[in-house]
Amino acid sequence: MLAVFDLDGTLLDGDSTGIWLWERVRRSPLRALLALAAAPIAGPMVAIPRTRRAGASVLLWIATFGLREKDLRSSLNRFGEAFRAGESKLTWRAGGLATLNEHLTRGDRVVVVTAAPALLAEALIGPLGHPIEVLGTSLKRRGGGWVADVHCRHQRKCQALAEAGHGARWTYAYTDSLDDLPLLRGADRPVIVKGGKAAERRLFRAGLLNGRAAAW
């Protein structure tokens, strides 16, 4: 069986990309100034799915200008190390981690597919030491900094799974957002990790009659 997990808000209690970017920006007065100047435009763009990739790329470029690929990976690895040491605002969601471990114990294949940069997700997931495949947004160097290349969100998550050899159907899908509706529709057992009647009604309205809401 194949279990597919979103990352931010599902396995993690927080926005991994946003926290990593902020930690980089706040260490540099110049980056902080540029981020403040760009925020009135980039912030609203990030909030809208259609323009999210462009808005995120602006902030990503500001935070990574001057980094070579080796430097970028080092920054992400340091962030992952701080996370494991409990020195980050980012934390695991207990319910998500427990469910992930249940699937691994049963011998299910597990894939984490996220809109966060794949390199960042790998720095957070890899140290768990489990056979977990990670798919996420690819990055490319542009003008001395890094921006999003292929943004792994919405239908693109399903495409990423297909390209990785997982086909168009999976047994389980876990996410906190209906932006992942294509991912949920591809699952035999879709789960939105927001408990209560409101979450159940959202699943019903989306046509996911086999879906369930789990309070993580």
Task: Considering the chains and any ligands shown, give keywords for the structure.
216 residues, Rossmann fold, two-stranded antiparallel ribbon, 9 helices, 47% helix, globular
Overview of this structure, please?
With 216 residues, the protein is of the alpha/beta class. It has one domain (2-213): HAD superfamily/HAD-like (Rossmann fold), CATH 3.40.50.1000. The chain has nine helices and eight strands. It has a six-stranded parallel β-sheet with strand order 3-2-1-6-7-8, with helices on both faces. It has a two-stranded antiparallel sheet with strand order 4-5. Helix 1 (16-25) runs parallel beside helix 3, helix 2 runs antiparallel to helix 3 (52-64) and helix 4 packs parallel to helix 6 (118-125). The radius of gyration is 17 Å and the shape is globular. The protein starts with a strand and ends with a strand. The model has no long low-confidence stretch (mean pLDDT 92).
For the record, what is the CATH homologous superfamily label?
HAD superfamily/HAD-like
Largest sheet: 6 strands, parallel
Termini gap: 22 Å
Mean pLDDT: 92
Helical coverage, percent range: 40-55%
What is the tally of helical segments? 9
In what range is the share of β-strand residues?
15-25%
Radius of gyration: 17 Å
Protein name: Phosphoserine phosphatase
InterPro entries: HAD-like_sf, HAD_sf
Could you write a compact summary of the structure shown?
With 216 residues, the chain is an alpha/beta fold. It contains nine helices and eight strands. α6 links the parallel β2 and β3.
